[in-house]
């Protein structure tokens, strides 16, 4: 049980402890509690619900229980949360949480409280130790910091997988097609954004007739060349031909190539895009 934002190595340690003879289930919350308590704060999520679902499925999770998080759920005391949600609602027999897990009104319940309440309600509680990297606990905050700095490989070391943005391919302004680099456009709304710029990426087309894995280069940003201020993700897949509109894409950030730049004209932009793709091909070939 937890938020599992990023499904990093610490989360994976919790999941591994929960593996056993029974089907493996995850209890999480949607939306993330921070989105309810501080709706006007800058986006902080490492992954949307779709990306979390896909990552958990890769880890062999059989059941995902996304509890609708709202002010009513937040108002439950730790005791009421255990009795109403875990016992009466889900009928759990054993739960695993991280050592820093908090629950109930004002986050008053701690992991040790869950263990105590479980004993009186007939279920067991296992508390997973925090996982560290370079003597520091692995956390979503540390991963966000690495991504903000343009260090996707450092983020991947803490995640145990590449950081990914997932979602539906939407219609853009189709400038890439006119420049000879057609891109798959995706919304990044509600997500913590890695450092804006150009990346070497690996992309999985998850749905539609072009399902498969591809290498590519992606631009994450506001497109200063064209005066657009709404961030989005534009991914150019190498050696690909086809229509991806409506398909769901998973884009993995491998290496940061350069920041966003404003060029003097389209020829300079096209020259730079060719150089970006050549560099991305070299990086991805070496993986």
Mean pLDDT reading: 94
Named CATH topology of the largest domain: Rossmann fold
Helix content: 25-40%
Strand content: 25-35%
Strand order, biggest sheet?
A: 9-14-11-12-13-10
**Count of DSSP E strands?**
14
User: What is the CATH superfamily of the largest domain?
Assistant: HUPs
Number of helices: 10
Please give the radius of gyration in angstroms.
21 Å
Question: What is the highest CATH level, the class of the largest domain?
Answer: Alpha Beta
- Spans of at least 5 consecutive residues whose pLDDT stays below 50 are none
Approximate shape: elongated
Number of domains: 2
- H/E element string? HEHHEHHEEEHEEEHHEHEEEEEH
- What's the N-to-C terminus distance? 34 Å
Question: In the CATH classification, which architecture of the largest domain applies?
Answer: 3-Layer(aba) Sandwich
Biggest sheet record: 6 strands, antiparallel
Q: Your description of this structure?
A:
The chain is α+β, with helices and mostly antiparallel strands and 287 residues long. It folds into two domains: 9-133, HUPs (Rossmann fold), CATH 3.40.50; 164-285, Elongation Factor Tu (Ef-tu), domain 3 (Beta Barrel), CATH 2.40.30.30. 33% of the residues lie in helices and 26% in strands. The protein has helices at residues 9-18, 33-37, 49-58, 71-74, 78-89, 111-121, 140-148, 152-159, 175-179, 266-285; strands at 25-30, 63-68, 94-98, 102-103, 109-110, 124-128, 132-133, 136-137, 163-168, 184-187, 197-205, 212-221, 232-237, 248-258. A six-stranded antiparallel sheet has the order 9-14-11-12-13-10. Helix 7 (140-148) runs antiparallel to helix 8 (152-159). It is elongated, with a radius of gyration of 21 Å. The protein starts with 8 loop residues before the first helix and ends with a helix. 31% of the residues are buried. The model has no long low-confidence stretch (mean pLDDT 94).
